[in-house]
Design a protein that fits this description.
Layout (H helix, E strand, L loop, with lengths): L7 H22 L6 H13 L4 E5 L2 H11 L7 E4 L5 H9 L3 E4 L11 H4 L7 E4 L11 H11 L2 E5 L7 E2 L2 E2 L6 E5 L13 E5 L2 H10 L4 E3 L2 E2 L10 H32 L14 E2 L5 E4 L3 H10 L29 H9 E4 L7 H16 L1
Parallel strand pairs: 2-3, 2-4, 4-5, 5-8
Antiparallel strand pairs: 1-9, 6-7, 6-12, 8-9, 10-11, 13-14
Bound molecules: pyridoxal-5'-phosphate.
Pyridoxal-5'-phosphate binds next to helix 3 and helix 4.
Length: about 375
């Protein structure tokens, strides 16, 4: 049996007629760059996030970068985030001219540890970026409290957590701004590159709208130096179709996770993911922890099972960030887990047979 890590084709086939109609509509109206299909999706996505505004941009990376620029983050500022994230979180900080500062993670949720956060706050700190890793939100209440006490912005990296919840509140409704990616493999994925910023702050939304379109709100009146970070009309139309299915797809992911949880529960040396009491996890990634990970990944690949590693090298140990001078053991939990995590196949269309096959192979391979 073959079990891919993700299966975008299976999902496309389940919605191909709706997609064809949506794409045809964009082609007929020739609204390719920004335009009505993007505006429509922005409305729908803001409402899905129980927030007032969504601004569509070209990628998740741009959503982070433009948000920080709009908040005035720049040279001399520090922004606190976690070392176990995709490189884009740190890149966005760096591209504003600011310095990323890292804080270690909670050992059960793999997200920002709020207890360690305060020690990182300095007079230069401008913002905090918790990352809702794998589809589970960080513990937002203590993070928001600290931010308030110190006058800091909270920008959530929700690129992996469309539809996740914190104490019943959806991702996108808590921080000053919440950044999403619609990279094809994400829980809500475009058919190309796209991203969005969600916020309740009208001024901020307006500033990001200006920045994404060369600093103009009216044609050829450039109020500030911006960039071309517009979302495509085609992506807006595709995302509107797919957003209607997101809750059902997230439920399917949660069901698959339950099956994995149950079947993997009694295997020695395998640690399954924990859903925090405060959270609704949407399992963008289902990651287990195990010693001697690489041996298992290779053996599973030989059986047709494709796994991933998120992420093998923490940001502070990447070549691009060696200038920060952070040594090994600076963030022991994040570093240890970067050696132990394996992401198993996870997507809504994954079948019970596939899940059982994956677990059976893990069982027999770890028993050897
Ligand atoms: C995917 C991702 C991003 C970047 O999004 P792009 O759309 O690929 O630019 C940023 N942060 C995290 C945590 C991500 O998973």
């Amino acid at each position: 049996m073959k079990v891919p890590f993700v299966d975008l084709r299976a999902q496309y086939q389940s919605i191909r007629d709706e997609i064809a109609i949506a794409i045809q509509r964009v082609l007929e109206s020739c609204a390719f760059a920004r335009g009505p299909f993007v505006t429509q999706f922005e409305k729908e996505f803001a409402s899905f996030c129980k927030s007032q505004f969504a601004v569509g941009v070209g990628s998740g990376t741009e959503s982070l970068w433009l948000t920080l620029l709009a908040l005035g983050v720049g040279k001399g500022d520090e922004v606190i985030t976690v070392p176990n994230t995709f490189i884009a979180t740190a890149e966005a900080i760096s591209l504003c001219g600011a310095k990323p500062v890292f804080v270690d993670i909670d050992n059960e949720t793999y997200t920002m540890n709020p207890v360690l956060l305060e020690a990182d706050i300095t007079p230069r700190t401008k913002a905090i970026i918790p990352v809702h890793l794998f589809g589970q939100m960080a513990d937002m209440d203590p993070i928001m409290e600290l931010a308030k006490a110190h006058g800091l912005f909270v920008v959530e990296d929700s690129c992996q957590a469309h539809g996740a919840e914190y104490k019943g509140r959806p991702a996108g409704s808590i921080g000053d701004a919440v950044c999403f990616s619609f990279y094809p493999g994400k829980n809500l994925g475009a058919y190309g590159e796209a991203g969005a910023v969600v916020t309740n702050n009208q001024e901020l939304a307006k500033k990001i709208k200006t920045l994404r379109d060369h600093g103009q709100l009216e044609k050829y009146q450039h109020m500030m130096i911006g960039w071309n970070a517009r979302m495509d009309g085609l992506q807006g139309a595709v995302l509107s179709v797919k957003l209607k299915h997101l809750s059902e797809w997230n439920e399917a992911r949660r069901n698959n996770a339950k099956v994995y949880d149950k079947l993997l529960a009694n295997i020695d040396g395998v640690v399954t993911p924990k859903e925090a009491d405060y959270a609704k996890h949407v399992y963008h990634i289902y990651a287990i922890r195990i010693q001697n990970r690489n041996k298992l990944i290779t053996a599973l690949a030989d059986k047709g099972i494709q796994c991933g590693i998120h992420y093998p090298i923490p940001i502070h140990l990447q070549g691009a960030y060696c200038y920060l001078g952070l040594e090994k053991n600076s963030f022991p939990i994040a570093e240890r887990y970067s050696q132990e995590l394996i992401s198993l196949p996870m997507f809504p269309e994954l079948t019970k047979e596939q899940t059982k096959y994956v677990v059976r192979e893990i069982k027999s391979l770890t028993a050897q």
